[in-house]
Structure of Lipid II isoglutaminyl synthase (glutamine-hydrolyzing) subunit GatD:
Amino acid sequence: MKITICHLYPDLLDLYGDRGNILALAARCSWRGIEGLVQRSSLGDPLDFRHIDILFIGGGSDREQSILVNDLKRRETELREAIEEGLVVLGICGGYQLLGQYYQTGGGDKIPGLGILNLWTVAGRERLIGNVIADLNPAAWGQEPTGEAAVRGTGNSEGRGGGLQTGPGTGCSLGSVAGTDNGAAAKAETGSGAASGSGILTTLVGFENHSGRTYLGEGLLPLGLIRHGYGNNGQDQGEGVRYRNVFGTYLHGPLLPKNPHLADLLLALALRRRGVAVLPAVLDDRLEIRAHQAVVRRFLS
Ligand code: GLN
């Protein structure tokens, strides 16, 4: 079994050690006897999205985002087709923002995004910095997203609208985050059960540092629901996004070593797209699970 992981723009988008996400995915493949093949692609490099299983785009400063955007736009059609066909994508912060319609900098310049996700970002005066804990949004986790927006309406740069509605019928009920259905759903999706933290871990932890406030349009689901920190915009309690097999988040850290359940979900989705139904359980990742739980306790103390 082989999973090909592409690190896009590793020389430009690699803030706060985001390359650690690549290392975590490759390690979690090797612990299972899966060949995790890492390839790097940057400005002008040929890249066929049909031959990769997971695309990773890290975070970067406004300057780096504006440097690479034309190169990224040239890849838009193939990437859009690959996403609709199930390509797994993880975008962190700037890499997340670039999947949307645009990123408006503090100086008012609009850096166009790929427009693949119905979201947009407007920089604010104050940077949103600090530790983050987000409860997993059951509507976006461990099952095909319902597509029913958990964030009703659309937020906007003035911050109006976009309030999270939870409870029955919105596909987003906080109550179930801590319940087993979330874990059971995740377990069903990864097939690796508790061994990979799914079913035990019902939060995402990380570190954020961004000026952009991201607003999700209709049809998009936040990946998490903020318990500590700012998240997408510091207003609607959403953190990140999930659309099909695309995951966007503001969480640096790097994200995946502290969130093994998300790492395994990405691997499971990548294998499923290749017709492999179950991700083999990892023998023992209690260390990663304990690290996640210790971080949650520390952030909340
Ligand atoms: N430049 C973007 C912002 O400040 C993204 C920053 C990042 O990737 N950490 O919002």
Notes: The first strand starts at residue 2 and ends at 8.
